[in-house]
Specification:
Radius of gyration of chain A: 13 Å
Shape of chain A: globular
Strand content of chain A: over 45%
Order of helices and strands of chain A: EEEEEEEEEEE
Distance between the termini of chain A: 36 Å
Structural class of chain B: mainly beta
Mean pLDDT of chain A: 97
Number of helices of chain B: 0
Radius of gyration of chain B: 14 Å
Oligomer: heterodimer
Low-confidence stretches of chain B: none
Largest interface: A-B, 25 and 24 residues
Mean pLDDT of chain B: 97
Strand content of chain B: over 45%
Helix content of chain B: under 10%
Number of strands of chain B: 11
Chain lengths: 107, 121
């Protein structure tokens, strides 16, 4: 199985900060990576697919990059509604796996 | 409008069975790759199963042989039959559509609200 390791697991930041979350895969997954945002008590929401393509309706302050084994999600200017947990997901091979999550909290 | 509504969760004893449903509207489930994903309380996301548009299914090793993913095209509804349930199956179960595609991979663009399954004596 492909393991995805996110760092950091917890991040404290302020509104308008720029933050970056990293996702490392245990083996190469090309660009078959997605990023999801989840708020408490809610279902996840797709933000980025194919490592760097913004899902329709997602604000442009979110961006993704990377290929192979190392990927990043960047939020250029944090807004109050961005404080949530973020997960990466690989679709390169079965089983589909997710990272353990990065919890982003207000400083 | 695309909607997914799960139901069927509840409290079940270890070794018991439960069937979850996911009613879809706004699109045709048989034309899409559909998934079940679960999340144990306070934990991360775990992919459970997928059903392809051709009816083929894949399962996580943790549920293989115990869970069965099916669909009723006439009702536009998905089902997850869960047998031999264990305490570690306790989670919120989400159905999710693999509707955003790139190079043959289908990302989960719509999710239901989830249904809680608690396996406990």
């Amino acid at each position: 199985d492909i393991q995805l390791t996110q760092s950091p697991s917890f991040l404290s930041a302020s509104v308008e900060d720029r933050v970056t979350i990293t996702c490392r895969a245990s083996q190469g997954i090309s660009s078959y990576l997605g990023w999801y945002q989840q708020k408490p008590g809610k279902a996840p929401k797709l933000l980025i697919y194919a490592a760097s393509t913004l899902q329709s309706g997602v604000p442009s302050r979110f961006s993704g990059s990377g290929s192979g084994t190392e990927f990043t999600l960047t939020i250029s200017s944090l807004q109050p509604e961005d404080f949530a947990t973020y997960f990466c997901q690989q679709l390169n091979s079965y089983p589909i796996t997710f990272g353990q999550g990065t919890r982003l909290e207000i400083k | 409008e695309v909607q997914l509504v799960e139901s069927g969760g509840g409290l079940i004893q270890p070794g018991g069975s439960l069937r979850l449903s996911c009613a879809a509207s706004g699109f045709i489930v048989s034309n899409n790759f559909m998934n079940w994903v679960r999340q144990a309380p306070g934990k991360g996301l775990e992919w459970v199963s997928i059903i392809y548009s051709d009816g083929n299914t894949y399962y996580a090793d943790s549920v293989k042989g115990r869970f069965t993913f099916s669909r009723d095209n006439s009702k536009n509804t998905l089902y997850l039959q869960m047998n031999s349930l264990r305490a570690e199956d306790t989670a919120v179960y989400y159905c999710a559509r693999g509707g955003t595609s790139w190079q043959g991979k289908y990302y989960f663009d719509y999710w239901g609200q989830g249904t809680l399954v608690t396996v406990s004596s």
